[in-house]
Amino acid sequence: MTNNKQIYDYTVLLEKESDGGYHAFCPILKGCHSQGDSFEEAIENITEAIELYLESLRADNQPIPREDLIVKPLSILEGTLMGMIQDIGIDRKTFFELIKKQK
User: Fold this and answer.
1) What integer pLDDT is reported at residue 102 of this predicted model?
2) Are 96 and 102 in contact (CB under 8 A)?
3) What confidence score (pLDDT) does residue 3 get?
4) Under 8 Å CB-to-CB from 39, ≥6 apart: which residues?
């Protein structure tokens, strides 16, 4: 008997909860969320949730999503955009209307 198991690599995001514990989710698998009281428990739980999600897709003859997610941390300097808007002498609403017209 051969082992035809496929390995899937997915990004999971974990957020600390204000009341303790962690919320974990997999962005590419819509609705695939879990939680845990500790970081390790949240990882175990989201791993199980992903496994069950994939089993459900297979049972329904649905394709298994391949991840194409790009994670790019950004550094944002607070207040810079609004300062620039004020410097050029237009109000915020007008600025964003001009941006929409450029799309």
Assistant:
1) 74
2) no
3) 65
4) 14, 22
